[in-house]
Description:
There is one protein chain. By secondary structure, the protein is of the alpha/beta class. It folds into 2 domains: 30-152 and 293-371, Response regulator (Rossmann fold, 3-Layer(aba) Sandwich); 155-287 and 373-405, Rossmann fold (3-Layer(aba) Sandwich), CATH 3.40.50. 49% of the residues lie in helices and 16% in strands. The chain has 19 helices and 15 strands. The protein has helices at 6-26, 28-31, 48-67, 87-99, 111-123, 154-168, 182-195, 215-228, 239-251, 254-257, 267-273, 275-278, 291-295, 298-311, 317-336, 341-348, 381-385, 402-405, 409-418; strands at residues 35-41, 76-82, 102-107, 128-130, 147-149, 174-179, 205-208, 232-236, 259-262, 282-285, 352-353, 360-362, 369-370, 373-378, 394-400. The strands form 3 sheets. Strands 7-6-8-9-10-14-15 form a 7-stranded mixed β-sheet, with helices on both faces. Mean pLDDT is 92; it is low at 1-27.
Amino acid sequence: MSRPSLSIFFFAPLKHLLLVVxxxxxxxxxxxxxxxxxxxxxxxxxxxxxxxxxxxxxxxAVEELNNRxxxxxxxxxxxxxxxxxxxxxxxxxxxxxxxxxxxxxFGGASSAVAIAAGKRAAQRGVVYFGTLTYSNDTTGKDxxxxxxxxxxxxxMASKVLGGYLQEQLPGRSYYYVTADYTWGHTTEAxxxxxxxxxxxxxxxxxxxxxxxxxxxxxxxxxRQAADAKPDVLVLVLFGDQMVKAMRVAHEFGLTRNSxxxxxxxxxSMVEQVGPAIMEGVLAGSAWTWNLPFELGNQRxxxxxxxxxERYQSYPSTSAASAYSIVYQWAExxxxxxxxxxxxxxxxxxxxxxxxxKDAQRxxxxxxxxxxxxxxxxxxPRAEVMRDPMRQDxxxxxxxxxxxxxxxxxxxWLAERRAxxxxxxxx
Length: 426
């Protein structure tokens, strides 16, 4: 048997090497060190479905940006950690993600998680973007320079809902079932303010443990609500807790006898309960998949179509928030030409943009995203089922411009002073 030619050992690898060099020359971003983005979301626990949607939206944005050459000539790499909706775990995740090289952090579903994680991110010198964090405290008493909130807050949701309820159902009796943590407390307080139901004796409430309320605790709270026979039942609950509560409310006849209000809703939550039970529920939202089509926003429409093709589901507000954050971070870094956190903060403050809806702005003094907000009603099941995805849930019944919905600077200053916080973010 003849020996193989030396050219096989020397020239074949050389061809491969030349091919690699050619590819790297054609796609220089592929040769550069990746920029790591850290996503801190619930993959387990009561808000896990919202975490999944955030991951999908973030992955989609990262892939799109990488296909365009990355950021600053470098590809993006997304890493994630499961917060389980527990603040201590979320704080530990911040350290882990930063230690792995993350230059930006984002995520959330529980406001307690976002607030705790954001404070730790500031200590590590990394900007944190809150996705689903609706507590007023996130950009109120707990606001700081390194936290930016993309979502609306409890104040904004309650203002659009309160205006609609006062117009459509004035002078009615209310009952509140509220998750016992920062989002629940600030949302109930905001809803009471904008519906003139501050008197808790006339409009009582039940608190539910969060996380980990038992089924018996949930049933007891809703039994108290049913016994009170309210005209309006406000479920200040989110994720899996809201899903379970709606099923019990239906069992107790509350879906027939009371107008149910869910201050913050997502597609995933409606999907889990089902339109037959959710029909007629009134809710607040900053974004729904059908909104870009109502507004004629082509970029938003493309996002919905691409997401639906990829995941066989319409995107929820969770996905839209994570997607938007990645793009806003990338644009701010590109404008300044640096990954430095202080430069990023300066590039974002009071920056106005338009992406998946109408105009939005990162307000400078509190880092709240100022944007239009909506009251939506869940459509009848027959109408939902006519949609190809069977997810045409949301009818927009009222809207409020961002500047009208958001807390004013004097009101924000009063809140900061009341809690002994500085009047400027630090």
